[in-house]
Amino acid sequence: MLEDLPTAASSPTAWPAAYPQGYAVVDVETTGLARDDRIISAAVYRLDARGEVEDHWYTMVNPERDPGPVWIHGLTSEALEGAPLFQDIAEDFATRLEGRVLVAHNAVFDWQMIAREYARAEREAPVRQRLCTIALSKELGLPLPNHKLESLAAHFGVVQQRAHHALDDARVLAEAFRPSLAAAAAGGVRLPLHECRPLTEWADRPAPRIGQQSGGYGSYRPSSWRPSRKRPVCPYPNPGRYEDGKPLKQGMRIAFSGDTSVERELLEDRAVEAGLHVATSLSRLTSLLVTNDPDSGTSKVVKARQYGTPVVDEAAFGQLLRDVEPADG
Questions:
Q1: 89-131 pLDDT tens trace
Q2: Which of 216, 171, 25, 53 is nearest to 111 (CA)?
Q3: Inter-residue contact 197 to 261 (CB < 8 Å)
Q4: In terms of C-beta density within 10 A (0-12 exposed, 13-18 middle, 19 or more buried), how is residue 234 classed?
Q5: Which residues make beta-bridge pairs with 319?
Q6: What is the CA radius of gyration of the chain?
Q7: Alpha carbon 294 to chain centroid, angstroms
Q8: SS3 44
Q9: What are phi and psi of 307, to 5 degrees?
Q10: Whole-number Å distance between alpha carbons of 61 and 42
């Protein structure tokens, strides 16, 4: 169902030329949080370059499996039985996303769920960049007690009517994102944009039977779309720590922490192919930590602070991978 809304007049405030030309504020509800869980509803608010609402769209999706925590999202098997399959709404969904920055609260989760659904449908999600409103609130220094959507909404006086309903969550997020975007533009703040690389293959595990949820909220299972394997030993000596402004060098020890837009195994593969050593833990010998959330408080981030280990985000690491300096000799 699509409802066109009137577009408000653009603000006369000077606008950063480098800012995106449009946004798709997205929320998806899912059967769970694991890698092989499914989308059961999706909503998109399309915003123009200055954050004015253009229209919105919502659909339920039949996940062809147990709907998961009904007590959270309220969508039962009976409610979803007549809903379209994801492949049936993929084209319409893509129309809402194409040419825009995907905006979501904890955007890496929504992006990964969307990317996996498109991979199952043997298509690619037309998203090239995402923006997380949690990261943006940090960039703006908003005085929030925590990073929940309800706290961001309360800060901007946005009233939530149906929490964990995709359409209302997307509305609330759009209404909170608009003043955030305006504040960022007025202050010349760099938007925390991250690259999105679509998956190109997927192999599902057998779906759980109705009433048998294979993984609930908060659970984690390894990716089923790509087999794990033991990596070869890095043939190059560790040249030491990465220095800002200089290239990476073969043999450097790279550690990762937190979610990444590119599947972690693929990102590690790229590092290994470039001649880097992928470390599973962080020590004083670690050359660089890659994380999209340096304030997360994970053990690796804490140790990086203690040891003075350099930290970069995934986008910066992707740039560095393009020009890795050969090892000495």
A1: 999 999 999 999 999 998 888 998 999 999 999 999 999 999 9
A2: 25
A3: yes
A4: buried
A5: none
A6: 21
A7: 15
A8: strand
A9: -90, -10
A10: 8
